[in-house]
């Protein structure tokens, strides 16, 4: 359900093996704020391919993204 308090949940799947979970998203937050021209809150979640594949069949935001999200 979308409301005026909604945000974007952006899942990025990439080669993050050399970075811990807390080191992954900050790079993308900086870029998000540089390129967007509207004030839209975002939650950026980064996974390796292996992590994403493991989580897409469990009850997680990844499963919801696979079922209802949009690949860009």
UniProtKB/TrEMBL annotation:
Gene3D superfamilies per record: Beta Polymerase, domain 2 (3.30.460.10)
InterPro entries: NT_sf
Name this polypeptide is given: Polymerase nucleotidyl transferase domain-containing protein
